[in-house]
């Protein structure tokens, strides 16, 4: 079953927002799900707000924003990004490039269904980006993300049109201490050119700090390893990293740049009908 048909069949039987979101996990929900309408206090500098309706991402996440999506493997990161992109692509002629280092089937099914051009390899991707008939929607299957051609591709994207660049696995695009020049340019200066960077990572401790510190929108799925929790907690302004514990399956937290905004808790995304 495809990623999206799985989501559809999973969500089909459920009522629409703002009904409570059942969790398929046996993990207890976060304190904020306890049924009270008062925001639950966690051991955090900011409270986690009560459950938000399921569905779309907060409207303040723009295509040209710097978005960080973290969570354990299979926690729902790629699905979240694809669902958001689908919303954006529905209404705009947005230029979107997905950089894929894993070659996962659901991503390629998504690409086919939504008429993305698929380039196999960095060199093929570079040709597409530089072509006069550059496709609006492109997936590049990258085999050597730290290589020279990959860097050329990133620089070409930086010098290209406004749009959104998705790093599906940011950890493959940097080491703890090094990040390719093109990725650094996109992260630090892409916003000024209306080029967004949406980066997913399953191991925040293994990702260059650039991806973490330059992000202004953070989406957090279940994450279990203590060192990852410790690394990510300050970005969400959580004093106690254990506040992340117990996030139910496919549920996510969102924290923007406004220090006075509480961390918001969202139910799983679903594909719009
Ligand atoms: N919101 C969701 N509702 C239902 N199933 C989901 C949801 N998000 C993810 N999944 C399922 O979980 C699996 C892993 O999701 P994926 O997005 O690939 O995780 P990650 O990118 O974090 O490894 C997918 O195959 C999909 O079927
Ligand atoms: Mg993924």
Description:
With 273 residues, the protein is of the alpha/beta class. Helices cover 27% and strands 15% of the residues. It has helices at residues 3-12, 77-91, 105-113, 122-130, 148-158, 181-189, 209-213, 226-232, and strands at 66-70, 96-100, 117-120, 137-141, 163-167, 195-201, 217-220, 252-255, 264-266. Strands 3-4-2-5-6-1-7-8-9 form a nine-stranded mixed β-sheet, sandwiched between helices. β3, α4 and β4 (137-141) form a beta-alpha-beta unit. Adenosine-5'-diphosphate binds next to α1 and α2.
Précis, in short:
The protein is an alpha/beta fold and 273 residues long.
SSE layout:
Layout: H1 3-12, E1 66-70, H2 77-91, E2 96-100, H3 105-113, E3 117-120, H4 122-130, E4 137-141, H5 148-158, E5 163-167, H6 181-189, E6 195-201, H7 209-213, E7 217-220, H8 226-232, E8 252-255, E9 264-266
Parallel strand pairs: 1-6, 1-7, 2-4, 2-5, 3-4, 5-6
Antiparallel strand pairs: 7-8, 8-9
Helix pairs in contact: 4-5, 5-6
**How are the strands ordered across the major sheet?**
3-4-2-5-6-1-7-8-9
Q: Count helical runs.
A: 8
Low-confidence stretches: 1-55
What ligands are attached or bound here? adenosine-5'-diphosphate, magnesium ion
User: Strand count, sense and closure of the main sheet?
Assistant: 9 strands, mixed
Taking the alpha carbons of the first and last residues, their distance comes to 18 Å
Rough shape?
A: globular
Strand content: 15-25%
The Cα radius of gyration reads: 18 Å
Under the CATH scheme, which architecture would be assigned? 3-Layer(aba) Sandwich
CATH topology: Rossmann fold
Provide the CATH top-level class.
Alpha Beta
Number of domains: 1
Question: What's the SSE pattern?
Answer: HEHEHEHEHEHEHEHEE
Helix/strand-derived category reads alpha/beta
Strand count: 9
CATH superfamily: P-loop containing nucleotide triphosphate hydrolases
Q: Indicate the percent of residues in helices.
A: 25-40%
């Amino acid at each position: 079953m495809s990623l999206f048909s799985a989501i559809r069949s999973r969500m089909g039987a459920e009522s629409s927002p703002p009904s409570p979101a059942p969790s398929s996990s046996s993990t207890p929900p976060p304190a904020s799900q306890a049924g009270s309408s008062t925001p639950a206090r966690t051991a955090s500098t900011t409270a986690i707000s009560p459950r938000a309706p399921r569905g779309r991402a907060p409207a303040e996440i723009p295509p040209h924003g710097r978005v960080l999506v973290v969570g354990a493997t299979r926690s729902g990161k790629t699905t979240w990004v694809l669902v958001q992109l689908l919303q954006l692509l529905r209404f705009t002629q947005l230029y979107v490039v997905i950089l894929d280092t894993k070659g996962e089937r659901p991503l390629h099914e998504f690409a086919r269904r939504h008429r993305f051009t698929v380039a196999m390899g960095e060199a093929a991707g570079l040709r597409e980006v530089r072509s006069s008939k550059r496709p609006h929607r492109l997936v590049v299957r990258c085999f050597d993300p730290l290589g020279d051609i990959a860097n050329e591709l990133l620089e070409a994207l930086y010098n290209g049109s406004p749009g959104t660049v998705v790093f599906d696995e940011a950890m493959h695009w940097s080491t703890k201490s090094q990040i390719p020049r093109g990725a650094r340019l996109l992260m630090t200066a892409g916003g000024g050119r209306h080029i967004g960077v949406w980066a997913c990572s399953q191991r925040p401790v293994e990702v260059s700090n650039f991806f973490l510190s330059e992000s202004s929108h953070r989406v957090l799925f279940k994450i279990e390893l203590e060192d990852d929790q410790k690394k990510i907690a300050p970005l969400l302004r959580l004093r106690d990293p254990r506040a992340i514990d117990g996030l139910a399956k496919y549920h996510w937290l969102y924290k923007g740049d406004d220090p006075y905004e509480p961390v918001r808790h969202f139910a799983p995304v679903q594909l719009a009908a």
